[in-house]
Amino acid sequence: MVWFAISVIGCVLLARNELVQLREAFEIDARISHRLLSQRVVQHEAVLATLALLQPAAPDGSADLAEQRLSSVYPQILSVQRRDAGAAWLGTGLDEAEQASRQSRAAALANADFTSARGRYQLVLAAQPASYALLIDIHGTIPWNDWSMPVQTSPVRVTLEHAGQAFVVQAGRVAAGGWRFAFHKHLDSVSQPFEVVAIRQVGWQELPWLAMTLWAVAVAAALATWSAWQGQRSARRRAEALLRVGQVARLNTLGELAAGMAHELNQPLTAILANTQAAKRLLQEDPGELPTALQAMDQAVAQARRAAEVLGRLRRTVEQPARAAPGQTVDLAQVVRSALDLLEPECQGRGVTASVHIEQIALVLAERVALEQIVHNLITNALQALDAVPASERLLAIHIGAAKGMGVLRVVDTGSGIAPDTLPHVFEPFFTTREGGLGLGLSLCETLASGMGGHLSAQANVPRGAIFVLSLPLAPAP
After folding, report:
1. Which pTM was predicted?
2. Residue 410 belongs to what domain range?
3. What is the biggest distance separating any 2 CA atoms in the chain, rounded to whole angstroms?
């Protein structure tokens, strides 16, 4: 579109410039023709005035008068007629022209005939003792030697017009269509008020098509060059931006992982603290409950190891972000039972009994610690959402199955649910609707699931609550 617009504008300007130049050349030629013809007709008036002033006559009174030899000097004057006092003119219309000449005291036109091949007219001047009449050939009046246009090839049509008659001086070329230039002006003579009419018809074929074609090609080349340069410039800027992003990405990752570390380590550290406090209290009793205390210490050790595994995974992610931890075969049901055992005090405190439905045994290929963190977070979020509804309406169901080569875990609750306008943003980092939340739990879960080749999604539960669906690749059969 840009090429078309610029090409059209340029071609219009080129055509307009060509038309302006053609008009200027036409007007110059037309004015030159008008001036040359005006000089000739004024010359006829001067010849008549000279004859009337000198009144030449042969010494012996014969008819061989000197004025009859004017044709040798002025070829356009075909003959000179003289009427002495008491004599009559030879021809019609001369008497009326003589009367008009006496009244205007200037030469008068008579017997103008522009229709013949050459064109003739007579010019009469009344004088004393004799009056004179010139028979003038229009074709011979044209100063062909000084004519500014080639008569045979010029496209300009030139005519002399008078009283509805037109004498074609130059045929030219006049056709329909295109642009027409016209010139109309009377000759600078009172006695010979002929109008010079010049017409120039410019056809479409006379436009500068070659220049316009070259202009369109030049515009196309310039735009192509500019587009290529812009493409290279954009590619260079994109490469520089990607380089900057690559340099900054690790810093952003470190920031997110630091926040995620605080979020993920909070749970095992809380469990370690609770178990060690319980073991201490059991040992202080009299008698001490040594087996129960040992069991609490074992759980604290397990949570400490889990925290160490979280730190190890985060460290591997920072040091080698493109290298994922090796996957292993993990039973989804076993991970769910471990998470429920860990969260049993919280379930009891809220009066919630989680129901587990194993529709099909699902052995998935995943990183155990990462999968445990995902399941733990999903169940914890469901328990927190159930706080907003009455205790009698709190339901938590976990479904385990497989479909299309993927192990599927569905966590269904009847809690406060997720608003429709909030649902698209639940996996965005630092987005949260819970007061005091960091907004990193679901974001980290989604990142971990994607890193293991899986997917985590959320949807509304009907009539109330939320459903989170975790899909992970099934492990190959042994």
Report:
1. 0.50
2. 326-478
3. 183
